[in-house]
UniProtKB/TrEMBL annotation:
Annotated keywords: Amino-acid biosynthesis, Lyase, Methionine biosynthesis, Pyridoxal phosphate
CDD domains (UniProt xref): CGS_like (cd00614)
Keyword Transport: no
EC number(s) per entry: 4.4.1.11, 4.4.1.2
Entry-linked PANTHER family: CYSTATHIONINE GAMMA-LYASE, TRANS-SULFURATION ENZYME FAMILY MEMBER
Gene3D superfamilies: Aspartate Aminotransferase, domain 1, Type I PLP-dependent aspartate aminotransferase-like (Major domain)
GO cellular component, one term: cytoplasm
GO biological process, one term: cysteine biosynthetic process via cystathionine
Protein's recorded name: L-methionine gamma-lyase
Pfam families: Cys_Met_Meta_PP
The reaction(s) this protein catalyses: L-methionine + H2O = methanethiol + 2-oxobutanoate + NH4(+); L-homocysteine + H2O = 2-oxobutanoate + hydrogen sulfide + NH4(+) + H(+)
Residues where N6-(pyridoxal phosphate)lysine is found: 138
Annotated source species: Mycobacterium parmense
Assembly, per entry: Homotetramer.
């Protein structure tokens, strides 16, 4: 993991959330503050909002693509800028290099959750980030058969802190999990190329469907983060989200009608998945500042024949 992220140190964890918890505990103390994306992964938000706030850790959700808003959110107590790019599930793009500069100026560490892009498409440490986090369950594992996480850094002091907490909490992967993750890394670049190709075709197809109001995919030239993504990524990834004109009912209907796209949480495997975030992966943010629209559908586009994927979506939308 250190090699593929071009980092000096890496720690493997039993789950992505174990890595998340370790990073937060290593970097934050009571009274500290962090900046998070205003469309962060639901599990990350839940951990910060329900657990770390009990220890007097404050947070501010911000649209990370708005650099002025990020600067305004930073306080003298800010120790961490938590970055997702692309975000889950709205596929927003943050400028890693610019955020790294803001972090350096404010003496805050910058952590990038690189799960959606994978190191095959984006290497945040080379852009100035201090820490990279992965749920290796997703694209790195790549076959929906392993659960894991990772933290990568160039900072030996940080790595020592991660190692101490990981050992103390027992948040280590089993040997077979490590084997499956290593197996996934061997085909990561090839898979990400196919995921990206298929996702672009799916996004372009969906953009032409009358039932679809908005397509969220950074590979489309009309995406507000397209230029930044093109600069810091070598491909646009396999995740596509859409908003449907028919609202919640239309979103649920689409999820129920697909046949090749499997209705399931998680993402990043060779098979295509579809889900309704407001009722599934992001139910934990309902009623919060991070609540996702109920007309949103998230697609994890797999490596199947693209004609099968487009045909499935066409019949499901009919």
């Amino acid at each position: 993991m250190a090699a593929v992220e071009e980092g000096a140190f890496a720690r493997a964890f039993s789950a992505g959330m174990a890595a998340t918890d370790c990073a937060l505990r290593a970097l934050l103390r009571p009274g500290d503050h962090l900046v998070i994306p205003n469309d962060a992964y639901g599990g990350t938000f839940r951990l910060i909002d329900k657990v770390f706030t009990q220890w007097n850790v404050g947070y501010t959700p911000v649209a990370l693509y708005d650099l002025d808003a990020v600067r305004a959110a930073i306080t003298p107590q800010t120790r961490l800028i938590w970055v997702e790019t692309p975000t889950n599930p709205l596929l927003s793009i943050a400028d890693i290099g610019a955020l790294a500069e803001i972090g350096a100026q404010s003496h805050a560490k910058v952590l990038v959750d690189n799960t959606f892009a994978s190191p095959a498409l984006q290497q945040p440490l080379t852009l100035g980030a201090d820490i990279v986090l992965h749920s290796t369950t997703k694209y790195i594992g790549g076959h929906s058969d392993v659960v894991g996480g990772a933290l990568i850094t160039d900072d030996e002091e940080l790595d020592d802190a991660f190692a101490f907490l990981q050992n103390g909490a027992g948040a280590v992967p089993g040997p077979f999990d490590a084997y499956l993750t290593m197996r996934g890394l061997k085909t990561l670049v090839l898979r990400m190329q196919r995921h990206s190709e298929n996702a672009l075709a799916v996004a372009e197809f969906l953009a032409g469907q009358s039932a679809v109001d908005t397509v969220l995919y950074p590979g489309l030239p009309g995406h507000p983060g397209h230029d930044v993504a093109a600069r810091q990524m070598s491909g646009f990834g396999g995740m596509v989200s859409i908003r449907l004109r028919g609202g919640r009912a239309a979103a649920q209907s689409l999820c129920a009608r697909t046949e090749v796209f499997i209705l399931a949480e998680s993402l990043g495997g060779v098979e295509s998945l579809i889900e309704h975030p407001s009722a599934m992966t992001h139910a934990s943010v309902a009623g919060s500042q991070l609540q996702v629209p109920d007309d949103l559908v998230r697609l994890s586009v797999g490596i199947e024949d693209v004609a099968d994927l487009l045909g499935d979506l066409e019949q499901a939308l009919a």
